[in-house]
Amino acid sequence: MLESMEMVDPSKVIEEFEAMTKDAERIQRETLKKILEDNGSAEYLRDQGLDGRTDPESFTACVPLVTHKELESYIHRIADGDSAPVLTGRPITTISLSSGTSQGKPKLLPFNDELMDTTLQIYKTSFAFRSREFPLGKGMALQFIYSSKQGKTKGGLVSGTATTNVFRNALYKQAMRALQSQCCSPDEVIFGTDFQQSLYCHLLCGLIFREEIQFVCSTFAHSIVLAFRTFEEVWQELCSDIREGVLSSRVTTPSVRAAMLKLLKPDPESADLIYEKCVGLSNWYGLIPQLFPNVKYVYGIMTGSMEPYLKKMRHYAGDIPLLSADYGSSEGWIGANVNPKLPPELATFAVLPNIGYFEFIPLTENPNHIYMDAKPLSLTQVKEGEEYEVVLTSVAGLYRYRLGDVVKVVGFHNSTPELKFVCRRNLLLSINIDKNTEKDLQVAVEEAAKLLAEEKLEVVDFSSLVEKDSSSEPGHYVIFWEINGEPSEEVLAECCSQLDKSFVDLGYVSSRKVKAIGPLELRIVRRGTFQKILDHYLELGGAVSQFKTPRCVGPVNKVVLEILCSNVAQTYFSTAYD
Ligand code: AMP
User: How many Å lie between the centroid of ligand 1 and the Cα of residue 303?
Assistant: First the structure.
């Protein structure tokens, strides 16, 4: 893998991908065989009675479908220092912490060299397709990437978020060079312990190397929006640092200061130019191409729970295209975006048949959105137009692991499916027969936020809650909004009723009509509330790079709920069904 990363030839990568996807079924069988041979000595597999068999039929007959809960005790044993082959043939030495935004706390997951290899393969594949459509010149990338706190488990294993484990891997930097994606910020900034300081320095590095920036990216789009929202507040300070060649006193970490001071020289000409460009912009529209004259695109995961940030990204990007990045998780990678020209709303992910063994649980939906499961299908058995839950057998010790993501097969690339991400499987809002997912919530928020757009205001971020504590009252939905300004009370009251009307699932509408669900409540939280939620996750060991705003807060997210509830400034109740 290392040699090939030193000389990435996009046409060769595409050729290999084409050959592999034409033969997806055979490659899947071979991949499963290799995983089971490499890890046959692991306790978990030995206990399943496979007796050396490595074919998909025996595998699916012997090994049960599991969720993280069933594997937790095995992973904890590994983290606590059991060096026997528990889940993998070769002992696991690194643990990944998933962002844990849906469960309220990070999940522990195994990370190994094989998983790193699949990461590089995904990067390489999507880079090849991207550079065919959008070739890059010589230069650098402005990457808003951040490491989590890296710690040690009780048993002495290195632990950090999956992205941190990737960024710290020796192969990562080499790969970034080979993929023309060298980060303009020094390592000290990426691995800085204070995320606000790192963010400021990423922006400053971007401005210092502004002519060389070829693209702007982050792991999840949230970090890009957060970065340019911050830019709106600190741009004058950034200009003054560049003008004087003196680093702002807000950067206090000695290693970060030292690294930044090596790059910073007084440059009044550049500072004046940036200043003029900022003053000349109307409401920051097209900020990115103004600051970075050679930028070709903005790149990051923009699908799923990142879709609500698209509007703001388009605003900052102006006429520069937004390219959606690949689909994966701390558990393992799934697919690469091989159609980079498609807008993020239509982005699909072609499954790489050699990075894991994949199964898909068909999900049939009845009118109340209740998913009925059926027997899992193999990668090449899935049907276009159908929705499935992804089941992953990874190269890092997860076998028939239900990922909890719902995807739709929207076509095929040769014989491998192209998936569209639909949503996380766990239901968000449900009181009785109503069932609303993250996607339904997003659509309702978009609909109601149109009323704010008329006043040139926007929803910065949002979350929700089911309130049903009093037995005498019917339960009702609560939506939390942070807004970048102060709309009138009339407008907010209208937004509240519009939110209520925009949940159109039959269970909700009929329950509202008969008052089995009470009027929807809109709670406006103070500016900076969602930043406090992010800070809370960073405290728990999460990383900004993998942060996803929890879209529904329940009892498992007690602290987040407290942050939201203690910052409520205004409350409205819907009159939609009065
Ligand atoms: P984590 O392991 O905490 O970083 O989160 C992984 C989860 O993020 C996946 O299971 C998906 O739900 C979501 N995710 C990752 N990549 C994408 C993508 N390209 N589009 C939509 N959601 C994604």
Answer: 9
- Which tens digit of pLDDT belongs to each residue from 338-391? 999 999 999 999 999 999 999 999 987 655 556 677 899 999 999 999 999 999
**pLDDT < 70: residue spans in the chain:** 1-7, 100-104, 365-371, 470-472
Of residues 67, 16, 94, 141, the one with CA closest to residue 396: 94
Q: Which atom of ligand 1 is nearest to the CA of 107?
A: 3
- What span, in angstroms and rounded, lies between the C-alpha atoms of 185 and 221? 18
Is 447 within 8 Å of 462 (Cβ atoms)?
no
- The pLDDT of residue 1 is 45
Nearest to 43 by CA among 94, 111, 92, 116: 92
Crossing angle of helices 195-208/222-244, nearest 10°? 60
HEC secondary structure over 148-172: CCCEECCCCCEEEEHHHHHHHCHHH
Q: Percent of the chain beyond pLDDT 90?
A: 80
Q: Any idea which residue has 């993929």 for tokens?
A: 179
Question: In sequence order, which residues have a C-beta less than 8 Å from that of residue 135 and are 6 or more positions away?
Answer: 296
Neighbours of 26 (CB within 10 A): 13
Atom of ligand 1 nearest to the CA of 349: 19
CA of 333 to the centre of ligand 1 (A): 9
Return d(Cα 49, Cα 46) in angstroms, integer.
6
Q: What is residue 323's three-state secondary structure?
A: strand
User: From the CB of 403, is ligand 1 less than 6 Å away?
Assistant: yes
Please report the pLDDT score of residue 366 as a whole number.
59
Q: Are 560 and 462 in contact (CB under 8 A)?
A: no
Contacts of residue 424, defined as CB under 8 A and 6 or more positions apart, other chains included, come to 102, 304, 305, 404, 405, 406, 437, 438
Interval between CA 306 and ligand 1 midpoint (Å):
10
Cβ of 300 less than 6 Å from ligand 1: no
Pairwise CA distance, residues 82 & 280, whole Å = 61
- Residues pairing with 73 in the sheet: none
Q: Which of 416, 420, 405, 229 is nearest to 324 (CA)?
A: 420
Q: What is the pLDDT of residue 370?
A: 60
Atom of ligand 1 nearest to the CA of 546: 4
pLDDT for position 3: 44
